[in-house]
Amino acid sequence: MVESLGSIGSLVSSPWIYALVATSVLLDIFLPVLPSGVLVIAAATAAAAGSGAAAAAGTGAAAAGRVPQDVPDILVLILCAATASVVGDLAVYRLAWRGGPRLDRAIARSRRLTTAQERLGGALARSGGALVVLARFAPAGRSVVSLVAGTAHRRIREFLPWSALAGLAWALYSVALGYFGSQWLGATWLATGVSLAALFGAGAVAAYLMRRQPRATEAS
Fold first, then answer.
1. 45, 84, 113, 138: least CB-packed within 10 angstroms?
2. What is the pTM of this model?
């Protein structure tokens, strides 16, 4: 990577970046403060920078259309992020499905979770998959919708396909932001900042639409 991203170059150029991305995406459903989106974008930026450097050098790998071994592979990165997203969704879904007094008390103590459960329960039953996909982009939306789907005992065949679609859509969007941002603006902090702004912007729009969804459903 170029010098402006040198401080994280050794991390994103390591094969361990796949495990780190997968772990972060898996756990951020429990801890939404984890920077999973930042890691995905940084890794995709490294992939774009590495492939661009190989092309400029005229290497055989670039001529064959392959990304060098010392930078993340785009397809593997998408697969890791999407798979970890689905596994995290299912973990919360199963925990909520089993429920129990402890979970009920935790929800009752949280005004945010109680409100979300009341408002999103009906919307999830009516909108179903669209809400699952939309929630994947909203801050903490993935956590709330997986929890509501589990406590409402939505059938797994109604939840899993949409969770998979949501995880894939989010992974594709995040990787595309990092990769094409680097291609267009160069592997600089500006490219990373613009990509992150686009990711957070999509999250803000998704959160807004999620707030409107239950009201629109109730009004109808």
1. 113
2. 0.78
